[in-house]
Amino acid sequence: MNSDSDVRLKAHIFQALIVRCIYLLHSVIVLWRVVIVRDSDYFWIYSVFVGIIVLEGLVIIVKRKGVEFKWFSSCILTYSLVNVPSIWQLELFRNTNPSTTNTTSIDTSNSVIPIYLNDETWIFGLEQTFLLCIIFGRWLLPKGSLSRDKLSSLLLLLIGKACDVTDFFTLINETKVRADTNLVYAILSTWSVSVVQFTFVLTETENASNNKSSRRITQLQKVFLGTDVWCCTISVFMEELPFLIMRAYTIATHNITSYSTLFFITKNVLLLLMLFYRISSVFCEEFEIHWPVVPITKESWSHDTRQTSREGNGLDLGNLDEQLSSGPTGINTRSNSLHTINSIVSSTVSTKLRSCAEETKKETQSIEILQI
Q1: Three-state SS for 116?
Q2: What stretches pass through the bilayer (predicted)?
Q3: Cβ distance 352 to 345 under 8 Å?
Q4: Beta bridge mates, 107
Q5: Are 234 and 202 in contact (CB under 8 A)?
Q6: Under a CB-based contact definition with an 8 Å cutoff, are residues 75 and 19 in contact?
Q7: Measured between alpha carbons, how far is 223 from 285 in angstroms, rounded to an integer?
Q8: Which residues 6+ apart lie within 8 Å of 281 measured at CB?
Q9: DSSP string of 170-212?
């Protein structure tokens, strides 16, 4: 048993170390590219965030033995802190220098093969690999409390979100958008907010079975911290709604009616409607079916019985609480009534039984006479 736990512990540490090495390598490449295109060593100051990745890795590997947090990934968060400012710099440079070309060389067998990569190709490749590294790293990281089913669902969800986030950058490719610097900043800010959702574990839920609070609070926690509400709320406020606002603003102010813009704004509207419908359906189901029944008290019982009496139900139960609270007298009165009803029922039953016995006796005598 100890050997199995040691192997599992070493595997967790190895997985956490490999993922952080991949993130560090990609972060250094992005920083190097920023220094090249900006032609200034000043941007190496972003390497401070690389140090944050190292510190976070030490905390997770040494203190937590490679186990990630339950609700979010600190590794992806620190990785995003390095790459988001760097991608900002690359996009702003592309906005001011759209036609710059960079040349690199590969020396193989005494021949130089020139490879021409313009800045747009570099930026597009780094942005794509940034999101792909997030998904691949989330796959390699230790699962922790996540089951394989939840992890696979999380990876599929992240792939879909990565496609939407990448498609959002098509707005910057529009010539009219590039001319508006404030709109470019707004698009980059919206994109940065959407990247934050990759740090959350959108398939994890709160386990309310061990909660010792009241049933009503437990039910509220089940609703608000359930997988559906948790995931839909983040998707609405970090992706679909901001993307819809930015695309609608772009169409309204710059009259951009390209096929991709119209398609994606329609997609945002449909997804928002579906997400709100999903949230409302979860709330309706929980509150109508599983919401705890209101306890019956003396006051509510008295009010209900009086209301029943006024509606003409034939039962005068309006003073039931007074009868019950009148002490031994009220109790004796109800007891005598019950004894009277019991005696009447008993006498009726005995009369019916005697009549049945007499009829059976007469039929038996008639049969005997016929036989003779």
Answers
A1: strand
A2: 12-36, 42-62, 257-277
A3: no
A4: 112
A5: yes
A6: yes
A7: 10
A8: none
A9: GGTTSHHHHH-HHHHHHHHHHHHHHHHGGGB-TT----GGG--
Tens digits of pLDDT across the chain (372 residues): 467 777 778 888 888 889 999 999 999 999 998 888 888 888 888 788 788 888 888 888 888 877 778 778 888 999 998 899 999 998 888 888 765 444 444 444 444 445 556 767 888 888 889 999 999 998 888 877 777 888 888 888 888 888 888 888 878 888 888 888 899 999 999 999 999 999 888 776 555 444 444 444 455 566 666 667 778 888 899 999 999 999 999 999 988 878 888 888 999 999 999 999 988 887 787 666 544 545 555 555 455 545 544 444 444 444 545 544 554 444 455 555 555 655 666 667 677 677 777 777 776 666 666 555
The whole-angstrom separation of Cα 221 and Cα 214 is 11
pLDDT of residue 45: 82
By C-alpha distance, which of 190, 194, 186, 220 is closest to 206?
Answer: 220
Q: Please state, in angstroms and rounded to a whole number, the distance separating the CA atoms of residues 354 and 142.
A: 83
Q: Which residues, 6+ apart, have CB-to-CB distance to 228 below 8 Å?
A: 278, 279, 282
Determine the Cα–Cα distance for residues 194 and 239; give it in Å rounded to an integer: 5
Dihedral sign computed on CA atoms, order 260, 263, 267, 269? positive
Residue by residue, what is the 3-state secondary structure of 239-271? HHHHHHHHHHHHHHHHCCCCHHHHHHHHHHHHH
The three-state secondary structure class of 303 is: helix
Residues in the chain: 372
- SS3 percent helix, strand, coil of the chain, rounded to 5, is 75, 5, 20
Torsion angles phi and psi, residue 115, rounded to 5: -120, 120
Q: Which of 283, 294, 301 is nearest to 216 (CA)?
A: 294
In whole angstroms, give the CA distance from residue 199 to residue 71.
Answer: 9
Strand partners, 116: 103
